[in-house]
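Second opinion, please. Pick holes in both lines of this record:
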Amino acid sequence: MRHSTRRRLAVIATVTAGALALSACAGTTSTTPADGNEDFTPITDIKLQLQWLPQAQFAGYYVAQEMGYFEDEGFDNVEIVPSGGDIVPQDALIAGDVDFAVAWVPKVLGTIESSGVELTDIAQVFQRSGTTQVSWKGDGVTSVADFEGKRIGSWGSGNEWEIFAAMAADDLDSTTVSVVTQDFSMNALLDGDVDAAQAMTYNELAQVLEVVNPDTGKLYTMDDLDVVSYEDTKGAMLQDAIWADTERLADDPAYADAAVRFLKAITKGWLYARDNVDKSADTVWDIASTAEAAFPIGATHQLWQLNEVNKLIWTDVPFGTIEQDAWDQTVDGAIAAVNQDGMHLITEEPPASAFSNEYIEKALAELKEEGVSVDGAYTPIDVTLTEGGK
C-alpha cells in the first residue's frame, strides 16, 4: 500500500522584494502603430493578467520587468497581475481590468463562442502542450486508450478539454471514463484517489519527483511512473498565449502600438530566460518567495520549471508565431471534444480575428533591426530535484 507525503500550499506574507541588480539592454521605443498612423499619444502604463501564481511558467514577463525591457520600450509602469484561480484571465481582459492576458487557447475559444466577445491571440508563447497524465508504473495507463474504466484526474476549469479531445481522437466514449477533480498538488495520485493524475511537465510532474518513496527512502523517479503526453496525441492544444482586445486593436492606434512594444519587451525577456536559465529562475524565486501567495515556490522547483518551459517555447517556429496547423488542430480538438455530460467546448470555427501574427511579426522585425537576434535553439540543462523542490 502506498503512503503519501502531503504537500502544503505555501502562503507567504507579502514583503517588499529586493531590487535585483540586473543590467538592461537599451532598445528603441516604437511609436508607430500597425496601420502606420502616428497621430496618438503612446500608452505608458499597462497591466498583464497571468493565469496562475508567480512561478517560472511566466519567467519571461518577470525577467522583462526586472531587466528594464519594458522601460526600453517606453512603458513607465507594467503591472503583472497573478491569479490563484480567482481571476479568469480572458474575463479580466474583457472587463477592461487589464490590457493583455496570458491564457490557454481552448479556454479563450470557449469564452469567445459562449459570450460573443472578440479577443485576439497576438503571440503564441508556448508552441507545444505541456499536459500529461501521470500514473504509477504497472497500473496499466500507458495510452489514451487505457483511460477506459479508469479514474482520470483533472483540475477542471477548462484544463480538461485536452483529455476529452484526445479521447475523441481515439474514438473513446467519454462516458466510459471517470474524470475526477483533483487539486493542484499531486495528492490525488499519491493517495490513490485517481489512476492517472493530470500534470504539467514543468510543474506537477516534478511535484511527484520531489516526494520520498516510503518503500525506498529515496525520491520517486521517472522509473516509478508512466506518463501519457498529450503532445503525442491529436488532443494536444495550444496553451499559453498573449491575448488582446480585438476591438481596441482595430480602433485604437495607441493600443496597437503598445501591443507591439509589449511583445518586443517580453520577447527579450524570454530570450534572456532561454540563455540565462539559472539567473532567470532565481529572479522568479525571489519574486515568488515574497509574494502574497505562491505554490509551489522552491528554488530547485523553479529551475526545473523554467528548463521544461523553455522546451515548450523554443521550437523551429519563430518565437510567438501562431502556426496554422497547430491552430487548426486546437480548433478541431475543441470542436470534437465531448465531456461526460455531452457538452462541447465549442461547436463551430472561431472568427478569423481570434488570432493574428501581425503584431508579433512586427515586433520581431523591429528587434532584428535593432540587432536583437531571436534565432537559436534551447539547450536543456540537467536539474537534480530535491525533496519539496527546495
